[in-house]
Amino acid sequence: MKRKFLIFSSYLVTLITTALSHTPMAFVPIRIRLYFFFPFLRAHSPFYQTLEDLPVMTKMTWMKDFDRINTVGVSLRDAEAVALTFEREPSMLPFIGNTTVLFSTGTSGNRGIQLTRSHEQSVWTGAVLAKLLPRSIFHSQKIALFLRANSQIYETINSTKIRFEYFPLGLDLQKQKERLEAYNPDIVVAPPSMLKLMSSWRIQPQKVISCAEVLSPEDRQLLEQSFQQKIHEIYQCTEGFLGASCEEGNLHLNEDMVRFEKVWIDEASRRFNVLITDPQRRTQPVVRYSLNDILVEAKGRCPCGSRFTWVERIEGRCDDIFYLVDGTMVFPDHIRRAVVAASATIEEYRVTQKAADLILIQLKTSEPRDVELVRLSLLDLFKSLTGTIPHLEFSSYDEEPVTSKKRRIKRDFL
Ligand SMILES: [Zn+2]
Question: What is the CA radius of gyration of the chain?
Fold first, then answer.
């Protein structure tokens, strides 16, 4: 009962704050939230009790001070033990007392661990429903959510009107297809690589939402054609619910819920990353936490009228910016454009920087001459940026499992 009340009140509050985003009052809700949050932080987190200034957190420093940052006295050691047990034995729920342990297996093997309590999850759920449902929660709506396994936070949105089914990625595709077609959801939330697979399935969703991977302009166009509708986006990570598409299909940061401090990577091209402070997260506070994503701010105000930052695209991770021998930065989007523009017959690609002077390109194509076209296109790009041209190596494309996060452009060295 308490849970439903929390979800509903969070839903209502988010509807109101989202409506306010169109007015000069747009940033009042987050100011009020922070006003109550900072005294709480000082009173309950041993780490913040003695600090004058709030330091910038990276994933590394955040994990290092885990024991003192959280407000419930849980040690990293205990939390890791619980996460491990859950991974081996999913029937053992990842709880310490009434605190849930959330974890994600990082790409480089470093596990991210966070603590949350059920009321925080209810607040999160209410906010997500308010930002994403095409109709109010008084209408019956069925949601299908495709995610990698172990995303425990998402498991429990269910009420009489809102039905919610979770489809773990990586299970037998034919079975997923049968189950999804039988369910026939109103809303589908999935990574773009999965949305592409299901675009020929017999479903008629009213809303299609991409999440968890970079949605490239090419994939967006393809998906909009096959689903015959706008593709929406949700920007969500274990650190928080950070953004959602408006009715125009444009992504806005949730500046009513989370404080974003912009850190420019390249102001001329409007690329930035963000430090986030999320006053909703009180068990394991997220304060000035540096996210690793490259966001690109759109020019002007979105036609929907929202004053919240309009993000034209999320381009990838800062770790995936290529650095050439002379220090020139090459953004993932530069590489993407060069490859995609080279030939229309390229079905899939992966570009990996292996060393400052070595780039590996994997192409999936039926046209052997695409290799030469991509080589020329990339050479043009590097010539336009710098005097030092890296060595380009080509190989065939190896398919990756559906369960792994698709990263077409990545850097493999520090
Ligand atoms: Zn908008």
Answer: 22
Task: Give the whole-angstrom CA distance, residue 243 versus residue 352.
Answer: 28
Dump pLDDT digits (tens) for 7-48.
899 999 999 999 999 999 999 999 999 999 999 999 999 999
Model pLDDT, residue 152: 54
Fold of 321-411: GMP Synthetase; Chain A, domain 3 (3.30.300)
Spatial distance between the Cα atoms of 237 and 253, rounded to a whole number of angstroms: 13
Q: What end-to-end distance do the CA atoms of the chain give, in Å? A: 50
Query: Residue 398 — φ and ψ, nearest 5°?
Result: -100, 130
Class assignment of domain 1-318? alpha beta
Q: Which of 318, 328, 324, 322 is nearest to 296 (CA)?
A: 318
Distance, in Å, from the CA atom of 345 to the CA atom of 302, rounded to the nearest integer, reads 34
Q: Using alpha carbons only, what angle is made at residue 274 by residues 71 and 154, rounded to the nearest 5 degrees?
A: 55
Determine the distance separating the centroid of ligand 1 and the alpha carbon of 68, expressed in angstroms.
39
User: Distance, CA 135 to ligand 1 centroid (Å)?
Assistant: 17
User: Which residue in 130, 121, 128, 114 sits closest to 59, CA to CA?
Assistant: 114
CATH 3.40.50.12780 domain extents, the chain: 1-318
| Ligand 1 center from residue 70 Cα (angstroms) | 35
Phi first, then psi: what are they for 292, rounded to 5°? -95, 10
Average pLDDT over every residue of 333-346: 91
**20 CA distance to ligand 1 middle (Å):** 13
Rounded distance, CA 376 to CA 104, Å? 39
Name the segment(s) of the chain with CATH classification 3.30.300.30: 321-411
